Amino acid sequence: MRLSVVADNRAKADNHAKAVAFQPIDDETLKSLPAALSVRQVARLLQCEIHFAYRLIYLGKLPAMRLGKRTWRVPSVGLQRVLTPPI
Would you list the DSSP string of 11-68? Predict the structure, then answer.
């Protein structure tokens, strides 16, 4: 019974990550970003919880690279691609 609840919660989180629409960030802010951002910095920019930013990374929606065992960095170019609407 417990496994079905966990699977159901995971499916809800995945569906939420698919449907999320981020607020646009002005061009000056995007240009002034460092080459790589921590997940905490990305969460602040996206105005979301840090665990949700990690969820986007794990789902492949947000490009990131792992440095060591626990450190993740998000390239600013990848963040700009995620925030730029498709044409």
Answer: HHHHHHHHH--PPP--HHHHHTS-SEEEHHHHHHHHTS-HHHHHHHHHHTSS--EEET
Quickly tell me which residue has 């000056």 as its tokens: 28
Residue ranges per structural domain of the chain: 25-87
pLDDT tens for 21-74 read 556 666 677 777 889 999 999 999 888 999 999 999 999 999 999 999 989 999
> How far, in Å, CA of 48 to CA of 32, rounded?
20
pTM: 0.67
Angle of helix 50-59 relative to helix 39-46, nearest 10 degrees?
Answer: 110
Domain 25-87 has CATH 3.90.350: no
According to DSSP, the residues that pair with 65 across neighbouring strands are 73
